[in-house]
Structures are given as C-alpha cells and as structure tokens.
UniProtKB/TrEMBL annotation:
Record-given protein name: ATP phosphoribosyltransferase
Function (record text): Catalyzes the condensation of ATP and 5-phosphoribose 1-diphosphate to form N'-(5'-phosphoribosyl)-ATP (PR-ATP). Has a crucial role in the pathway because the rate of histidine biosynthesis seems to be controlled primarily by regulation of HisG enzymatic activity.
Enzyme Commission number(s): 2.4.2.17
Family to which this protein belongs: Belongs to the ATP phosphoribosyltransferase family. Short subfamily.
One GO molecular-function entry: ATP phosphoribosyltransferase activity
C-alpha cells in the first residue's frame, strides 16, 4: 500500500483523473472525507502547503504538489517527476505606471512565499522587508503597505483587474511527484512502478 498526499483543489482532481486512466474504478473522495482507499493506494487530502511536511515525515510515502510549494517549504524530499499540469508562475508584481525603485534602502514585498522571495532578491543583491500575508496579496501595494508583491499567477488576469503588472518572473511551476527518502527504498518497486506509469501517460499529454 502506497500512501499519497494530495493538495485540495484542482491538482487533486487532475491527479485522481490520472489514476482513473491508469487503474480501474472511480478515484473519488466521499463527501467531507479526507482519506480515500482504492486498489493499492491510500490518498490523503491535505492543504497544499502541508504536502511536503506529510511526505518528509513519512505520514505519506508520496505526494503530488506544485514546485512552488516544494521550493517554499525547502523540505528534504525526492523530486521524481514533473507531471506537467497545474502550471503557474511565481512573479514580482507592482502597480501599473510605477517601476520598482531598486535604489531604495529596502523594498517592502508582500507575499505568501517569504522563502522564495528572500532567495530571489538576495540573488539580485537587493535588500527587502518581506511582509507575510495570507490572502488578498494584490491589495498590499495599492494601499501603500508594500512596494510590490510576489505571488502566483496563471493568466495574470487577477493582477490586471487590480491595476497591477508583472515585473519579473521568478519561476515557473507545475505539479511534481515527490517521495519520502525512506519510503523510496522501503517501497522502491511499487513507487518506481507508479513513476513509470505516470511518466508514460504524462509524456503523451
């Protein structure tokens, strides 16, 4: 039995759709249930940000989660396969009509992803103050809380609707298959079989 952590939302839905194509039956969570057992798999439905934690501590053998979450959490887990769906970008954004002033002693950046933000600006040798927010990131520069934001975008339409523009792309992200280090050795045959099946089906998409 392989335990698989899935993030609530679209990535979980697309992941389960892949399993339905690979294995017989309906891979659907019952209403309000957080655990689904089917064939040789047990699926755990968790918050996206918690997937690396479940995998790192071996509460799950395997996880499927966005690369942006993996980079932000900095967990010591094995990245096995880019599944190619759930695509988005992590970007720097600021109000339309304004440019980022890198001459300021310290830029204020609002974000849900302080680790990615810190590393990106450190590599540019830019001093920042990172403001950790949990929602409505786009509001921060509009009311003077921050100079800019670091956020996830798919099409950029939400930023445009809030009179923000994309200044820089930090990274591109998509869903990855990740594995606990110990589980990879303890259940290597099962995990590699799953990896090979997923690799074949994602290669045709």
């Amino acid at each position: 039995m392989i335990k698989i952590a899935l993030p609530k939302g679209r990535i979980a839905q697309e992941s389960l759709a892949l399993f339905e194509r690979l294995y017989s039956g309906n891979f659907v969570f019952d209403d309000r249930k957080l655990i689904l057992e089917h064939n040789d798999f047990t699926f755990l439905l968790v918050r996206s940000q918690d997937v690396p934690t479940y995998v790192f501590h071996q509460a799950a053998d395997v996880g499927i989660v966005g690369l942006d979450v993996i980079e932000e959490q900095e967990a010591n887990i094995v990245r096995l396969l880019n599944l190619g769906f759930g695509k988005c970008k992590v970007v720097v954004g600021s109000p339309v009509g304004k440019s980022l002033d890198y001459q300021k002693p310290k830029l204020k950046i609002a974000t849900k992803m302080p680790n990615i933000t810190r590393k990106y600006f450190a590599n540019k040798a830019v001093s920042i103050e990172s403001l950790k927010l949990y929602g409505s990131i786009e509001l921060a520069p509009l009311v003077g809380l921050s100079d800019a934001i670091v956020d996830i975008v798919e099409t950029g339409s939400t930023m445009a609707q809030n009179n923000l523009k994309i200044d820089e792309v930090i990274m591109e992200s998509s869903a990855y298959l990740v594995v606990n280090n110990n589980s990879f050795y303890e259940k290597k045959e099962q995990i590699l079989a799953l990896y090979n099946e997923l690799k074949k089906i994602t290669a045709t998409q």
